Amino acid sequence: MRYLPAAFVLSVSAVCAACSGGTPVSPSSTTTSASTSLSLSTDPTIGFDHLSGLPCDRYVKGGVSPDFTTPDGQPVTIAIRQPFPPSPSCVLHSYTESGVTVTATSGEWSVITDYGHPAPFIEIYVPCTQQAGTCATPATPGIGTIQVTAAGATFSFKSIDLYASLVPIPYQVTGLRNSTTVFTIANTLPNTSGKFATVVNPQAAAVIDTLVINLSDAVSAMGLDNIVLAPVPQ
């Protein structure tokens, strides 16, 4: 029998100092490894936990809003969302945990360390377009796709948590084995209003070697957390 490997390796574009207003540091990638115990009785949950030490907060303090004051008229310091596009040092290209690798194949996925289910999680962000002084939804949605593999090992997919701040979440989840489609789940979640909603795979026993997750974002933030898998004997 062969199981999903127990070591994890974390790879991001850089140590994320710029996400908190600092300076990106070299080298351009950082790697962390450790040993964990994994057995057939354990369902690996890819929750991006080993990214939590990176300073890639979505919101930072320091902005002063003229619209909010204290009772005695003093300005209020508010949290400001990091500018879009995100700092290159916060962009996720590839992440490996418990022998499972998550690879961004389309869209710009960012690590967010001050929110999640629990924190951290990864998201795509589509800015609104300015039209006659108003913030409008872009004509074309942003597409974010990730691919999940396990170094050639087979596994099954159980569930995933999806998030959006302002819009419904059109998603498609495809499981493949030997490049042949085994299942496809396609639907639209109602707006989760800044919370996470769990999508459960109705074919959770299906054996696959590749999982492709696609989100279509009309505007603002949309992301994912907690990819729950189950190892399969080889």
Key features of this structure:
six-stranded antiparallel β-sheet, Jelly Rolls, globular, 234 residues, eight-stranded antiparallel β-sheet, 50% strand, 0% helix, mainly beta, single chain
How would you describe this protein?
- It is a single chain.
- The strands form four sheets. The protein has an eight-stranded antiparallel sheet with strand order 2-1-6-7-12-17-14-15, with no helix packed on it. Strands 3, 8, 9, 13, 16 and 18 form a six-stranded antiparallel sheet that branches. A two-stranded antiparallel sheet has the order 4-5.
- It contains no helices and 18 strands.
- The protein has a single domain (7-231), classed as Jelly Rolls (Sandwich).
- The chain is an all-beta fold and 234 residues long.
- The radius of gyration is 19 Å and the shape is globular.
- β6 (94-97) and β7 form a beta hairpin.
- The protein has strands at residues 7-11, 33-35, 45-46, 59-69, 75-81, 94-97, 100-106, 110-112, 121-126, 129-131, 134-136, 142-149, 155-164, 169-177, 180-189, 196-200, 210-217, 220-231.
Q: What CATH architecture would you give?
A: Sandwich
Report the β-strand fraction as a percent range: over 45%
Model regions low in confidence, pLDDT < 50 over at least 5 residues: 1-41
Mean pLDDT: 78
Main sheet properties: 8 strands, antiparallel
* The top level CATH class name: Mainly Beta
Q: Characterize the overall form.
A: globular
**What's the CATH topology name?**
Jelly Rolls
Q: Provide the structure class.
A: mainly beta
